[in-house]
């Protein structure tokens, strides 16, 4: 496809560091159409309701979603309060316990505040999939189920392995990807984002949209961040995560336990380091004590009150920065902490205590 250099640069910027795209030419077409019509793309991302905190692993696709917002598009953040009653079977060797409505309400109570630590609230549509799924009749559920085959669902490695090992796969688990996919139909998503392990679930949404007469969404997956155990992906279920609302001291301590082998992935996925800066860090790892570089990583994530330098400049211009209750607007202002501590505040709810280094 013939693309202009500026358009190619936009696509490359949005896709920096992603895992898979289905497909890049379609994304370029959608972006070109959006620019021509002035209508922003609807970029969907689902939130699992299995735990009360958003962690650094989920912050990876959230940061990717923020890129689309900064490019002028609309984030459609879908909280899986309905699908949470089923439990995502992805990567599971056994059936997940079903959450109660009370557990789901408890877990969702803090999601909005946490998500907006990374996302722009003015370009976000925050939805719960119970809005449309609770209202589905038995006839409508049968209609949705008739649009996808069992053979396609059991192509998934997790289901195949469980069936091969004689581990039960329950019918409600087979319905999970269908309900998640139907979310894309309900909100008319142009693009859906997710972790690399969500690729097959996201393709179901793409197929269902086609079945329901919609233009199929572009699917983009982000790499998975390994958890603090260095073995499994970061997950609330595995307990190997760093919550984005963890106190700074706790976040620092947890990140200092990250395996040396994962340091580069954390810098790449959790910070805004350029390719040149990443190359420098990699070179330093080969000759310096990894603990010193890990401390640098921990300091960069724990101080992440804002998702990007551009957002920090915007907040400065708005007069939203304070040091010890004194407003700061100079981007070159240096906060000195020689004794005691000082408090850095951004907006109404984001605080960081600074101590002497």
How would you portray this structure in words?
Helices cover 44% and strands 13% of the residues. The strands form 2 sheets. It has a 6-stranded mixed sheet, with helices on both faces. Helix 10 packs across helix 11 (199-211) and helix 13 packs parallel to helix 15. The model has no long low-confidence stretch (mean pLDDT 82). The protein contains 16 helices and 10 strands.
At a glance:
The chain has helices at 5-14, 24-37, 56-70, 101-108, 111-115, 130-133, 138-145, 150-153, 157-164, 171-187, 199-211, 248-255, 263-270, 275-285, 290-302, 309-318; strands at 20-22, 42-47, 74-79, 124-128, 191-195, 218-222, 321-323, 326-328, 342-346, 350-354. It is α/β, with parallel strands linked by helices and 357 residues long. It folds into 2 domains: 5-222, HUPs (Rossmann fold); 315-357, no CATH class.
């Amino acid at each position: 496809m013939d693309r202009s250099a500026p358009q190619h640069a936009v696509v490359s910027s949005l896709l920096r560091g992603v895992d898979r795209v289905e497909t890049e030419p379609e994304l370029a077409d959608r972006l070109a159409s959006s620019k021509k019509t002035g209508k922003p793309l609807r970029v969907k991302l689902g939130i699992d309701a299995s735990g009360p905190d958003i962690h650094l692993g989920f912050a990876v696709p959230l940061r990717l979603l923020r890129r689309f917002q900064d490019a002028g598009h609309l984030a459609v953040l879908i909280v899986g309060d309905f699908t949470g009653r089923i439990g995502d079977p992805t990567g599971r060797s056994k059936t997940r316990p079903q959450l109660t409505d009370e557990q789901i309400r408890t877990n969702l109570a803090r999601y909005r505040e946490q998500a907006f630590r990374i996302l722009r609230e003015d370009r976000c549509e925050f939805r719960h999939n119970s809005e449309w799924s609770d209202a589905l009749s038995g006839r409508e559920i049968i209609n949705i189920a008739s649009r996808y085959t069992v053979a396609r669902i059991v192509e998934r490695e997790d289901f195949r392995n469980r069936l091969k090992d004689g581990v039960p796969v329950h019918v409600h688990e087979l319905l999970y990807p269908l309900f998640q996919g139907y979310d894309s139909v309900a909100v008319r998503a142009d693009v859906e984002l997710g972790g690399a392990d969500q690729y097959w679930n996201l393709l179901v949404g793409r197929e269902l949209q086609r079945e329901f007469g919609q233009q199929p969404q572009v699917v983009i997956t982000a790499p998975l961040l390994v958890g603090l155990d260095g073995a499994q992906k970061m997950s609330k279920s595995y307990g190997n995560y760093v919550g984005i609302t963890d106190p700074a001291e706790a976040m620092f301590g947890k990140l200092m336990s990250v395996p040396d082998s994962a340091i580069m992935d954390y810098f790449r996925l959790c910070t805004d380091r350029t390719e040149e800066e990443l190359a420098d860090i990699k070179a330093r790892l080969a000759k310096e004590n990894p603990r010193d570089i890990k401390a640098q990583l921990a300091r960069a994530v724990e101080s992440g009150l804002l998702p990007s330098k551009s957002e920090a400049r915007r907040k400065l211009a708005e007069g939203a920065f304070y040091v010890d209750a004194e407003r700061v607007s100079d981007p070159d202002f240096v906060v000195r902490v020689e004794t005691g501590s000082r408090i850095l505040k951004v907006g109404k709810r984001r605080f960081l205590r600074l101590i002497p280094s």
